[in-house]
Q: What sequence folds into this?
């Protein structure tokens, strides 16, 4: 008869949604009619209850290919 001791483990699940923040520099378009004259710096960051978790961002600019940030 094959027997082994009962085993237990704990699995934690984070049910909260990830939070993403996008910052632009300059914050507003520096040209007329809502256009940027200079290339803006885009910064993405995430935060939440579990700062050690990995969050991946994907983006696309002007219909180009999808890129990982």
A:
């Amino acid at each position: 008869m094959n027997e082994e001791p009962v085993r237990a483990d704990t699995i934690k699940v984070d049910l909260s949604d990830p939070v993403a923040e996008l910052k632009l520099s300059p914050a507003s378009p520096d040209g007329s009619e809502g256009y940027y004259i200079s290339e803006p710096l885009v910064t993405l960051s995430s935060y939440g209850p579990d700062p050690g978790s990995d969050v991946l961002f994907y983006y696309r600019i002007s219909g180009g290919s999808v890129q990982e940030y």
Q: What stands out?
A: Strands lie at 19-25, 41-47, 58-59, 67-68. The chain has a mean pLDDT of 83.
